[in-house]
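Re: Re: ligand-bound prediction request (bumping)

Still looking for help on this. To restate: I need the protein modeled with 3-methyl-2-oxobutanoic acid bound, output as structure tokens. Inputs repeated here so nobody has to scroll up.
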Amino acid sequence: MKDKLIIFDTTLRDGEQSPGASMTRDEKVRIGKALERMKVDVIEAGFPAASIGDFEAVQAVANAVKDSTVCGLARALDKDIDRAGEALKGAESSRIHTFIATSPIHMQVKLKMEPEQVIEYAVRAVKRARQYTDNVEFSPEDAGRSEEGFLCRILEAVIEAGATTLNIPDTVGYSVPEQFGATIANLIQRIPNSDKAIFSVHCHNDLGLAVANSLSAVMNGARQVECTINGLGERAGNASLEEVVMAVRTRQDFFPCTTELDTKEILTCSKLVSSITGFPVQPNKAIVGANAFAHESGIHQDGVLKNPETYEIMKAEDVGWSANRMVLGKHSGRNAFKSRMTELGHHFNSEEELNDTFFRFKQLADKKHEIFDEDLQALISEVNSDAEEDHIKLIALKVCSETGEVPSSTVTLRVHDQELKGISEGSGAVDASLKAIKSLIGSDATLELYSVNSITNGTDAQGEVTVRLEQAGRIVNGQGADTDIVIASAKAYINALSKLQTPEQRKHPQKGNV
Ligand code: KIV
Ligand code: ZN
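Reply:
Sorry for the wait, this slipped through. Here it is.
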């Protein structure tokens, strides 16, 4: 029997620290449920002390997720630990992750603390966290640039205080694989009580080495890897979950451990995170990029036709590519629709909501005969945003686009029960439509990102548009999907404008004082 490698996903916490990758509470719950379906062991849902909204988001994920452990991050401060403990009360299985910096530069410049004081804070935090749960993780922040001797002392002390997981972060992405692996081996060997805790790693990708460093650590005794979907995360991101998991799975001849993930869910998670955050996946991204399994050259194609193993080391369907199958169609009934939506994690709160969503599904099926899971995910996004935030509704949109003429768009909106109609010109149909909406709402928000992705294949596919807006330092993402990309763009823009009109509940982690 091989050891189990624990997969700790921090898309909802470190992933959200990517500039612009903000998520609402409900979006976090949807991603949390998708991670749970993939059988991720631990989901770090956020930083409860950062703001009331962050607290509520962690609480909502803790209440919704049953099969994965839900974790909350806390600085080594009583008030942070208490907030995390409180937010996680509803979880079936909870973990508190507390951290304090241990590198000379962080201790001197940021914390202005002596090393002995840092050890005291760490021990106190772990003991306090143990009052809420017996599953406590400790991280010496910037461990990659910390002195090994000091790491040994602080880690021995926190194990003694009750920490069950010791996470070694390469916070600034400075490490290289051989050296990082050796550090893990040395720590395990030098710390007298190291057998009482699981060693974990958390690598950032500043030098493009996050996955390599994580895997080197695994070869040297780490049995938990912290990672994110699509490698999202602060600056250059974190180690990518899909790359770590598939490397370990594909090279079972090499790695001494296995994960228990349902890898077929990888692609769905990747698309969901990309659509919610507005961070597109590059086509040549390993595992989840559109070209990851495409063979272009004739020699490769010929080989693959003769035997896929000539050029393929993994099966595309093992990470969910062929799951892109038709699941429902024009003739599907309400029951089939309801049960697939439930499998995708969407629960209907009332008969009325089911009827309304089913009606939208039928409308889509009239335009597009084959309905895939990705189409249903887009429908869920639309229903959720309508239910919660969109006090602005698109009633009608008519574009006039002709070669040699200036495109124009006439838009009718309902804003808080008032109907408004306006017309604008633009450089194209999308530009004209967004200008018309902007002037009707009177918004001064600036557009930071506009991206269109085709949800599935074919010219009848829905286009999914993500729009990122910034207003007075606040950043929101809006999504919209439709078989017509001008309408999808209008929906996404309206979704983002609606979010800006609701009071800010969650401070983006980068804007908090933490
Ligand atoms: O990168 C880092 O050091 C972190 C810690 C909070 C684990 O994200
Ligand atoms: Zn990090």
